[in-house]
Amino acid sequence: MNVSKLCITHQEKTLVDISFSIENSLALVGQSGSGKSLTLKALLGMLPDSMECDFRYEADFELLAGKSIAFVPQNPFTALSPMTKIKKQFFIQNAEVKKLFAQVGLDGELLERFPPELSGGQLQRVVLAMALESNPKLLLLDEPTTALDPKNRVLILELLKKLQKEFGFKILFVTHDMNSAAALCEEICVIKEGRVVERGVLAQTIQAPLQEYTKTLIEANFANREFRI
């Protein structure tokens, strides 16, 4: 998928003006306010009416949220209705949901429970199963491990890599966490104030960033830690 232009403006002020391509898995990295969330909203067709968007892309599928595109939010606790049983929050039959649960490492009997009865790691797996029920071509991830403890963070990232091989979807991983990006993605696009400042193979960028901004992001994540690709 190639996004040749994504320009978002508000009251004649340009908020985002970027281009990028997703061959397999791309990390869109930047600090808060860099334009990551606006980019996600544009892809999902969720920008407010007050903003204008010039969006041009080439792909072998149409960008249709809920069909060819699926979204995994940052916080699984707010992604589900707390007063509704898990099984009633899917659009497919229970037998199909149980198959998805098996693929994300969940027991089918959890379908009878309510979201507050599940742990954060279990809830994130439920949300992943919900994202996969439409067999998407593109999976948008908005910091999906932020609300998890370190152990579950690693498990979810490993699960995402496994699921990508099984389902064949592309990944756009929006994050400020270079560590998680390195664990999941092959390529990186670094944005600052709505502009691309660096792009390339993620492993190479981690080892030898070209821009001081990218170097700062890396140092903030890996300070006092040894990092291996």
Number of domains: 1
CATH topology: Rossmann fold
Structural class: alpha/beta
Q: Quickly count the helices.
A: 7
Judging from the principal axes of the Cα atoms, what is the shape? Answer: globular
Order of strands, main sheet, comes to 5-6-7-3-8-9
Rg, rounded, reads 18 Å
- Can you identify the CATH class? Alpha Beta
Ranges with pLDDT <50 over ≥5 residues? 224-229
Task: Note the gap between the termini.
Answer: 25 Å
* Secondary structure tally: strands: 9
Mean pLDDT: 92
The run of helices and strands is EEEHEEHHEHEHEEHH
The main pleated sheet reads as: 6 strands, mixed
Tell me the β content: 25-35%
- CATH H level, superfamily name: P-loop containing nucleotide triphosphate hydrolases
Tell me the CATH architecture.
3-Layer(aba) Sandwich
- Give helix % range: 25-40%
Structure description:
By secondary structure, the protein is of the alpha/beta class. The protein is built from 7 helices and 9 strands; from the N terminus they run E-E-E-H-E-E-H-H-E-H-E-H-E-E-H-H. It is globular and about 50 Å long. Strands 5-6-7-3-8-9 form a 6-stranded mixed beta sheet, with helices on both faces. Strands 2-1-4 form a 3-stranded antiparallel beta sheet, covered by helices on one side. Helix 2 (94-104) packs across helix 3 and helix 3 packs parallel to helix 4. The protein has a single domain (2-206), classed as P-loop containing nucleotide triphosphate hydrolases (Rossmann fold, 3-Layer(aba) Sandwich). The two termini are 25 Å apart.
Describe the protein's topology.
Blueprint: E1 2-10, E2 13-21, E3 25-29, H1 36-44, E4 51-58, E5 69-72, H2 94-104, H3 120-132, E6 138-142, H4 150-167, E7 170-175, H5 178-184, E8 187-192, E9 195-201, H6 202-207, H7 212-222
Parallel strand pairs: 3-7, 3-8, 5-6, 6-7
Antiparallel strand pairs: 1-2, 1-4, 8-9
Helix pairs in contact: 2-3, 3-4
